[in-house]
Amino acid sequence: MILLDGKKTSQQVKEEIAAEVKAIRESGGKTPHLAAVIVGNNGASMTYVNHKVKACQMVGFNSSLIHLNEYITEEELLIKIEGLNKNEEIDGFIVQLPLPDHIDEQVILLAIDPIKDVDGFHPTNVGKMALEFPTFIPATPFGILELLKRYSISTDGQHVVVVGRSNIVGKPISVLLSQKADYGNATVTITHSKTRNLTDITKTADIIIMALGVPGFLKGDMVKDGAVIIDVGITRVKDETKKSGFRLSGDVDFETVSVKASHITPVPGGVGPMTIAMLLKNTLLTRTMKRI
To answer: Do 167 and 251 belong together in one domain?
Structure first.
């Protein structure tokens, strides 16, 4: 069994980005600038955004953290976003989800200029991705593709089962892996919580991508020998043996699945670090994207 080390791989990606940024600076170019908007004080969101800021520092990006009160109105937030859209110093920005209940996430995502949408969530960018136009790929699916590439895991003709149908992971990765591409050409089955006889399907998979959000859902008896397992799930589970009072769990029961898998991602340290690295990659790509 080979561990797909996202922490190590993301470090390699960031070092490559840092070298590109250095070359840009030495040639007199503008330093890439990534901004992050966070509304409220959600602990997990704050931690994640802080990781992004630190990653920017590591690769030599400029970064801005815009921390807004949780009681900000939707109209006020839209004004902030419009300011970022017009700010020529900022190459790309993200609005950290989830947002407070009184703010419509779809309205906010639609307000982001697609050229600055480095999360790749705007419908314009999703449509370009589906049509195989150059665009921003959502960071987590982008990270999964990069892991497959760096570990030379072929997807040609492979049966990939995606468990989960979110707009952030499940749907985009299913589209990407079925496209005509170096890390595509797979036969993809997308499943979810309502899928009948799920085990019968997962046992036929060469590659399983778990993005359901249910800790330990995928068991060893649900996979065939030699399968490649990509675990996107990450959930805080109560654990009194830990000083923090919790541990992080993926959607895969690592103990029973890892003995059958040929390759598997750990949680934490698998897909998570890759997501941040590919967000930086998207920011670097903003200077080559064109409006279509």
So the answer is: yes
